[in-house]
């Protein structure tokens, strides 16, 4: 079945451009559009999309609050949210990730990257491009812990290897890349990632990356 996508952006020309790109793919169907967060909520309930391509800055209700309502405990369907941001990275993106977004994408990303992001998010994975993630977190380094704060108690639940895996997830590495880095199988990495998410009460790899930075486990700019 085709991936059902809802386009949410207050600029009609951008929605048209995204629609043209996505409808050229046999496995993707654009089922609706919305010009603000309130319309998005109505459309999600009515159309039951798999993925919502969500702008951040919109009138009436912004993308952060809309994301929170779409993915929260009272959600009306299985929709995943992929956040759109400008080239200089919107200051609200971190809040959108905390609110439940499965990843983010630059508005000027190549068509192929947009299509791939839709497929990744629809499959239940997180869209964590290392270069974009690093730039985002470096940009807000001053708002993140200095590394001198005490380690959160929840972090002590992890084994030494799980901490290693969490650090690599925060750098944006895929399971295959983590497996190569740690000289273990990809299946083993998937198991470790699953344990990390369960122990820390996190939804996906995006939240794991944000947690790693917020807890001071990983510092912006570190390798």
Keywords:
223 residues, alpha/beta, 10 helices, globular, DNA-binding, Sig_transdc_resp-reg_C-effctor
Secondary structure blueprint with pairings:
Layout: E1 3-8, H1 12-23, E2 28-34, H2 37-47, E3 51-55, H3 63-71, E4 80-85, H4 93-99, E5 104-106, H5 111-122, H6 130-139, H7 160-170, H8 175-182, H9 186-200, H10 205-214
Parallel strand pairs: 1-2, 1-3, 3-4, 4-5
Helix pairs in contact: 2-3, 3-4, 7-9, 7-10, 8-9
Describe this structure in words.
The protein is 47% helix and 12% strand. By secondary structure, it is an alpha/beta fold. The chain has a 5-stranded parallel sheet, sandwiched between helices. Helix 2 runs parallel beside helix 3 (63-71), helix 3 (63-71) runs parallel beside helix 4 (93-99) and helix 8 crosses helix 9 (186-200). It is globular and about 50 Å long. The N and C termini lie far apart (40 Å). Residues 4-122 form the Response regulatory domain. Keywords: DNA-binding, Phosphoprotein, Transcription, Transcription regulation. The modification 4-aspartylphosphate is found at residue 55. Residues 151-216 form the HTH luxR-type domain. It holds the Pfam family Response_reg.
In percent, how helical is the residue content? 40-55%
Radius of gyration, rounded? 17 Å
Low-confidence stretches: none
SSE order in H/E notation?
EHEHEHEHEHHHHHH
Q: What general form does the structure show?
A: globular
* Number of helices, counting only DSSP H or I runs of 4 residues or more: 10
Number of strands: 5
Through-space gap between termini:
40 Å
Q: Average pLDDT, to the nearest integer?
A: 83
Order of strands across the main sheet = 2-1-3-4-5
| Major beta sheet summary | 5 strands, parallel
Strand content: 5-15%
Quaternary: single chain
Helix/strand structural class: alpha/beta
Domain Response regulatory: 4-122
Pfam family, one: GerE
Domain HTH luxR-type: 151-216
Protein name: Response regulator transcription factor
